[in-house]
Design brief:
Helix content is 38%, strand content 36%. With 187 residues, it is an alpha+beta fold. It folds into two domains: 4-79, 2-Layer Sandwich (Alpha-Beta Plaits), CATH 3.30.70.260; 85-153, ACT-like. Chain A, domain 2 (Alpha-Beta Plaits). The strands form two sheets. Strands 5, 6, 7, 8 and 9 form a five-stranded antiparallel β-sheet that branches. A hairpin with a 5-residue loop joins strand 2 and strand 3. It is elongated, with a radius of gyration of 21 Å. The relative contact order is 0.17.
Length: 187
């Protein structure tokens, strides 16, 4: 069974308990969530879930269909990496004395277009924005130098590369149907 990294983008109304319902779909199928990011979308009252998981095409279709059936979910779609633009952010807390003893660390930080955002005598904090592979590679190079104290990364944020936004079309269609039904009631 060939596994691919899929990104599911879910648009929902903002109601308590929906995150639990969405993650339960993965739990029932014993599918691990690699990353999960939930935030308000550009549409008032609509939240966007960005979920990544390694699975096969048949399973991702079933998971997405099950999520889309949840009552507060407006839409759910899955994408491969070539259908989206994705980004993550990572923070690396590095030991300042170890950095001072390893001048090549600065070269590595620059090589990955990361930036140092805080420096004090005990630690330095480096921030890296970008794709998952670069974030991981920078971590591994810094770890090999023995200077990493802490490491944290965000979940993926993603937008589609298509020219239209499916949720906008869905909401416009839903609004048109609502007003049409109101007009029919009044007639």
């Amino acid at each position: 069974m060939d596994k691919t990294l899929y990104t599911i983008i879910v648009h929902s109304e903002n109601f308590a308990g929906l995150l639990n319902q969405v993650t339960a779909v993965f739990t029932r199928r014993q599918i691990n969530i690699e990353s999960l990011n939930v935030s308000a979308s550009s549409i008032k009252g609509v939240h966007k879930y960005t979920i990544t998981t390694w699975t096969d095409k048949d399973t991702i279709e079933k998971i997405t269909t099950q999520i889309a059936k949840k009552i507060d979910v407006l839409q759910a779609h899955y994408f491969t990496d070539d259908e989206i633009y994705q980004h993550e952010i990572a923070l690396y807390k590095l030991a300042t004395p170890a950095l001072e003893q390893a001048p090549e660390a600065s070269k590595v930080i620059r090589k990955y277009n990361a930036r140092i955002v805080e420096v004090n005598p005990v630690f330095a904090i480096v921030e890296k924005n970008g794709i998952s592979e670069d974030i991981t590679s920078l971590y591994e190079e810094l770890r090999e130098m023995g200077c990493v104290l802490q490491f944290v990364r965000s979940g993926r944020v993603a937008i589609t590369t298509s020219c239209f936004e499916r949720v906008n079309e869905y909401l416009a269609d839903r609004e048109a149907k609502y007003f049409q039904s109101k007009q029919q009631e009044e007639a």
